[in-house]
Amino acid sequence: MSKRKLTKKELRERQVIEDKKSKRTLLISFSSFFVLAILFYVFIVFGHDTKYAYRKYALYGKEVPPELVCMDGDKLLYHKSIKLSYKGKNYSFCSQDCYDHLVDHFQKNAFITDPFSGDTICKADALIGLKSLGKPEIIYFQSIKTFNQYYKSRK
After folding, report:
1. CA–CA distance, 86 with 72 (Å, rounded to integer)
2. Confidence of residue 1 (pLDDT cuts 50, 70, 90)
3. What's the pTM value of the predicted model, to 2 decimals?
4. Statement to judge: residues 111 and 37 lie in one domain
5. To the nearest whole number, what is the mean pLDDT of the chain?
6. pLDDT value at residue 2
7. How far is 83 from 66, CA to CA, in rounded Å?
8. Chain-centre distance for alpha carbon 68
C-alpha cells in the first residue's frame, strides 16, 4: 500500500478547506469575545440601574433597609443614603438638601400615618416597605403586624 501523491489541485482544495475552517474558528472566537466584552461593559455602566430595578421587585413585601431610602422624598434610592440625626433620632437622606428640608418642615415630613392602622408614627422608628410592586414609592408601618396585614390585603 503506497501512498498516492496529491496533485497541486487537490493540495490547493485541501488548503482552501483548512483556511475556511480556521477563518470560521477565528470569526466565532472574536465574535464571542466581542459579545462578552459588550455585556461586561453594559453591566459596569448600568450596574446601579440593574440593582435599582431588581430592588423595586425583590423588596416588595419585605422590610426595606433604611439606608436604601430617602425619608424626605419617601423614595427608594439608586445608592445608599446618608444617615443623619435630628432630635435624637436617625433619619436617612439622599442629600444634605433633603436633611435641611426635613429640619425646616419637621412636623410635616418626620411623621406619617400608618397606612393600615391609621396611627401617626415617626419615620425614624417605623418599618419601611414598598407601596407597590415595581414602583420606588415607600410607605411606613408602626409594627410588623400592620406591615404583614398591609401586604396580605394587597395580594
Report:
1. 13
2. low
3. 0.70
4. no
5. 89
6. 59
7. 9
8. 11
